[in-house]
Specification:
The chain is mostly helical. It starts with 16 loop residues before the first helix and ends with a helix. A two-stranded antiparallel sheet has the order 1-2. The protein has helices spanning about 15-25, 25-45, 50-65, 85-100, 105-130, 130-140, 145-150, 155-180, 190-205, 210-230, 240-265, 265-275, 295-305, 310-315, 340-350, 360-375, 375-395, 415-440, 445-460, 475-495, and strands at about 70-75, 75-80. The protein has 20 helices and two strands. α10 packs antiparallel against α19 (about 445-460).
């Protein structure tokens, strides 16, 4: 793997995957029908309308009926900033057209968005690799069960993945125009469009900003690569220095338009929060809490001293407050001594009395967390984040299905145990092929793609709730890299056989 200068043909920004579709319409029609059938299977048999879905729907209904962006609390509509307005706006639009709480219509429209993502992934693969890789990526995206299953979930993932892929695709177009210097001045539309796509992702979930960090961080690297290519061997003349200064302007302009597009959609939301709730909040709060809602920082910090997998999120983290928590569900790494185990047992007993985490209990969890961090700082700051990153990438992605999250104990029903194993193997095949593709084949702008993967993975390592769904925004890159590896392997086999 190398961070080489992007080798993009001058017309790369003109040629789109639509031309490839016209050349091989039967292939694309067959794949899109199979992709549609897979997604409809999940919509019909495994539709996921969860607590978050109902919260989004409540906000959307209050927004439409009462003109207030808020939640229903004891029969009253209370303004909220706990959720960004992107997904409630989407639900409000669908409900206004197809009827209140018509989640079936929501899921069917998300299926269309997800099919659009398949075409965007193919377009991105064509721009960064070649036509053959684009077709392979289209198949891998269309038949990916993980993308398909979340199209049947009333959550932000499908729209977030769509806008993430669109932002990357437009950024690659912008890079192509920067390399084609005669058209560099007209690249502003691509960078503005990429920024607006990031802004749309930010209005869905605050972690959409990671994409801005990756693309924005790649532009200085791109400037260094361009300067290295243009660096004269002899002492530069004043004229050469002037040309070098002018060559920076397109990249500076790209950064400006990218920034403008990213943050301008957040202005109305920020002004609303200032006016209505008297709080400067450009995004949603870290723990999705309202301004007057307390945050259990001590408990959260304690969970980060031991939590490393999604199973613990389901069995412990999500149950607080409101449900009973069982100390036997804690892994052995949650205790450093018999004394800590006894102290944790007392804290659990205190919480389970009324299922409320009082400030006093939260302070005791904070003290326990501080003790554990002092005794093993590397575990807290390095090893556990690494384990959380590994878990979100490698776990079987069956969280929307009836499968037992403790699949490794092999005591689930035979059908769902099989599903867990198969999904786990499929995920490993995608990721293994992608790693091989990133290491062994040449992909245009690989530095941009790798930066996004690194930034997002590092961010996920800091969370108390490592959920596999948070890696799905990276799956377009996984699919493109896997397609690169598979097509290169096919080409090598063909060359050997001939």
């Amino acid at each position: 793997m190398h961070f080489s200068s992007p080798k993009v043909t001058p017309n790369a920004y003109i040629l789109t995957v639509l031309e490839l579709v016209r050349k091989d319409a039967r292939f694309f029609l067959a794949v899109i029908l199979a992709a549609l059938a897979l997604r409809l299977f999940f919509v019909i048999h495994f539709p996921a309308v969860v607590d978050d879905s109902r919260l989004y729907a409540d906000i959307a209904e209050n927004w439409l009926q009462h003109g207030t962006y808020g939640i229903t609390n004891s029969g009253e509509v209370v303004p909220t900033l706990s959720r960004l307005p992107g997904y409630p706006a989407f639900l409000a639009a669908v409900f206004a057209i197809f009827g209140w709480n018509n989640f079936r219509a929501v899921l069917l429209i998300q299926v269309l968005f997800d099919l659009g993502t398949c075409f965007l992934i193919a377009d991105l693969a064509r721009r960064t690799i070649n036509d053959k890789a684009a077709k392979a990526a289209f198949v891998l995206a269309g038949l990916c069960p993980f993308l398909a299953s979340y199209a049947a979930a009333a959550l932000t993932e499908t729209l977030e993945i769509f806008f993430t892929t669109l932002a990357l695709d437009l950024a690659i177009c912008g890079i192509a125009r920067l390399r084609n210097q005669p058209n560099a001045s007209r690249a502003w539309a691509m960078w503005l469009g990429s920024g607006l796509s990031i802004g749309a992702a930010l209005l869905l979930r605050p972690d959409g900003g990671i994409l801005f960090a990756a693309i924005g961080g790649y532009l200085p690297l791109l400037l260094l690569l361009f300067r290295r290519q243009q660096q004269p061997r002899r002492t530069p003349t004043p004229a050469a220095e002037s040309r070098s200064a002018r060559s920076k302007l397109p990249i500076i302009s790209a950064a400006a338009f990218l920034t403008l597009g990213t943050f301008s959609p957040l202005i109305p939301w920020t002004l609303r929060n200032l006016h209505t709730l008297h709080k400067f909040q450009p995004l949603a709060p870290r723990y999705a809490n309202d301004a007057d809602e307390p945050v259990t920082t001590g408990f959260n910090r304690w969970t980060k001293t031991w939590i490393a997998d999604y199973t613990s999120v389901q069995e412990i983290y999500w149950k607080v407050p409101g449900d009973t928590i069982d100390i036997t569900r804690l892994p052995s790494r949650a205790f450093d001594s018999a004394q800590q185990r006894e102290e944790t047992k007392q804290l659990f007993a205190g919480y389970n009395q009324d299922h409320d985490l009082t400030p006093e209990l939260d302070a005791r969890f904070a003290a326990l967390a501080a003790t554990r961090i002092r005794s093993a700082p590397l575990r807290y700051y390095l090893w556990l984040p690494a384990l959380r990153i590994a878990d979100v990438w490698l776990r079987p992605r069956t969280e929307l299905l009836p499968s037992d999250p403790r699949w490794w104990e092999f005591d689930d029903e035979r059908l769902w145990l099989t599903v867990s194993i198969v999904f786990g193997l499929i995920n490993l095949l995608y990721i293994g092929s992608a790693i091989a593709g990133l290491l062994r084949t040449e992909i245009c702008c690989i530095g941009l793609l790798v930066l996004f993967l690194i930034f997002r993975s590092l961010f996920l390592g800091t969370l108390e709730n490592p959920e596999p769904r948070y890696t799905l925004e990276c799956y377009p890159i996984i699919i493109i890299a896997a397609a690169s590896f598979l097509t290169e392997k096919t080409n090598r086999h063909y060359r050997k056989s001939t």
